[in-house]
Design a protein that fits this description.
- The strands form six sheets. Strands 4-5-12-13-14-15-16-17 form an eight-stranded parallel beta barrel, surrounded by seven helices.
- The two termini are 42 Å apart.
- Helix 2 packs parallel to helix 7 and helix 9 crosses helix 11.
- It folds into two domains: 347 residues, TIM Barrel (Alpha-Beta Barrel), CATH 3.20.20; 108 residues, CBS-domain (Roll).
- A hairpin with a 5-residue loop joins strand 10 and strand 11.
- It has 17 helices and 21 strands.
């Protein structure tokens, strides 16, 4: 019988190090063969972890978020679109409205799209003005007024040709004290839009994960049932950079057949497949087209698969076995589940993973979906496994609404065997602080291993198996904690 090890069963053996500062350590890594990240972190495709706010925050810091699939197809695609429109070098298709529209129409459109300004165009789509939130403050309850009467007209606008550089655009906006610079073709049709806010985002987050158009990277999850391809198409059209096949047991015909169909219909979109925990499962997914493989069965903090089913594999050994197989094909491995600290991330990468997916550690942050709850004068947020009873109820609610008849069907709810739980975690503030701590710990761990980059620690790491006494010794002990 094979011995399986988890993160707490081992330590990394310190090696001679030439690292004098954590600033010398690079955490750049590959999500797929073609997608590179500045930090090896993904936010989990769980409905209490990743929607647009989380995906934006982690992408700005160099990782990537995976929008969960437990939304209607429209709503999930809209979350992807929010991320893609959050930051642009140049907004190629800025939102526009016709000059003869009413203020009420403009307000509804701005609310639906989550924007505070609109470019105003004529019937032949030529720029005639711009409507901003500043213009709206001058109007008192006259929602029927045409926007042409309150917009800033074309004659007052600062505009540029499409070939202006970002640096030149920034200078032009500073000199003229404007926040938005429409890019105009010779016939006054709109070629794009540059905003001061987008330029400031580029400056404040230089390590952001970006696509070729300067937009934040974002991934999205799909299932393996009847709407998988329809959902995939909508997500790709919204701008998703990568898809994740979301199924607990990825070494299955359902997952493999879905992957085959995705690769057949959408050959240019990279796909993360999983979850698996064996070399055989890894090999089979790669051979049918997986661009990365997600490893982990039953190790998540709110997952009870191993207890309910008796199936699973200790996470560190699963990573080692799967990474060894994936390495034959040059395909990256994602460690998913069981990570409780920055040290676990270091161990996962040293064992062969290229990235780590984070759930619980991000669940208590401002950017996770949901609002904080208060219990005994302390703030918490809710996390739930996607195979929990509560998550199942949520899906039944959604499916009833999507069918358009308003009927919620619970016929199968009592046949459902949950493999996850719902729980509370302490409120943790901004996810950026959590990420800074995790990456700081990872860099320190890499320096202890004598590694200046991800490839060095994956190639030169040495583990030592420890006893329960060694684990106890590894934690703070024989003192009374102040916190």
């Amino acid at each position: 019988m094979e011995l399986g090890l988890s993160y707490d069963d081992v330590l990394l053996v310190p090696k001679k190090s030439g690292v004098t500062s954590r600033k010398e350590v690079s955490t750049e890594t590959f999500l797929t063969k073609k997608i590179k990240l500045k930090i090896p972190l993904l936010s989990a495709n769980m409905d209490t972890i990743t929607e647009a706010n989380m995906a934006i925050a982690i992408a700005e810091l160099g990782g990537i978020g995976i929008i969960h699939r437990f939304l209607s197809i429209y709503d999930q695609a809209h979350e992807v679109l929010k991320v893609k429109r959050y930051r642009n070098a140049v907004i190629k298709n800025p939102y526009t409205i016709k000059y003869n529209s009413k203020l009420s129409d403009a307000l509804k459109f701005m609310k639906d799209k989550g924007v505070k300004s609109l470019l105003v165009v004529s019937d032949d789509d030529k720029l005639t003005g711009i409507l901003t939130s500043r213009d709206l403050k001058l109007i008192k309850n006259n929602y029927e007024i045409p926007i042409s009467e309150i917009m800033a007209p074309r004659e007052r606008l600062v505009v540029s040709s499409p070939d202006i550089s970002i640096g030149e655009a920034d200078s032009l906006m500073v000199i003229n004290r404007v926040e938005k610079l429409p890019l105009i073709n010779p016939d006054w049709t709109i070629a794009g839009l540059i905003t001061k806010k987008d330029i400031e985002k580029q400056i404040s987050h230089p390590n952001s994960s970006l696509d070729s158009k300067g937009r934040l990277l974002v991934g999205a999850a799909i299932g393996v049932k009847e709407d998988a391809l329809q959902r995939a198409r909508a997500l790709i059209e919204a701008g998703a950079d990568i898809l994740v096949i979301d199924i607990a047991h990825g070494h299955s015909d359902l997952a493999i057949n879905t992957l085959k169909k995705l690769k057949s219909q959408f050959p240019n979109i990279p796909v993360i497949a999983g979850n698996v925990c064996t070399a055989e499962g890894t090999k089979e997914l790669i051979e049918v087209g997986a661009d990365a493989v997600k490893v982990g069965v039953g190790g998540g903090s709110v997952c009870t698969t191993r207890i309910i089913t008796g199936a699973g594999f200790p996470q560190l050994s699963a990573i080692t076995n799967c990474a060894r197989e994936a390495g034959k094909y040059g395909i990256p491995i994602i460690a998913d589940g069981g990570i409780r600290s920055s040290g676990d991330i270091t161990k996962a990468i040293a064992a062969g993973a290229s990235t780590a997916m984070i759930g619980r550690l991000f669940s208590g942050t401002d950017q996770s979906p949901g609002i904080p709850i208060v219990k005994d004068n302390k703030k918490y947020k809710v996390i739930r496994g996607m195979a929990s009873f509560g998550a199942k109820l949520g899906r039944e609610e959604r499916d009833g609404g999507e069918k358009g008849n308003g009927n919620k069907s619970y016929d199968n709810i009592f046949d459902f065997i949950p493999e996850g739980v719902e729980a509370m975690v302490p409120y943790a503030g901004s996810v950026s602080e959590i990420i800074y701590q995790l990456i700081g710990g990872l860099k320190s761990g890499m320096s202890y291993a004598g590694a200046k980059n991800i490839e060095e620690i994956r190639g030169n790491a040495e583990f030592v198996q420890i006893t329960s006494a060694g684990l106890k010794e590894s934690h703070a002990h024989d003192v009374e904690s102040l916190s």
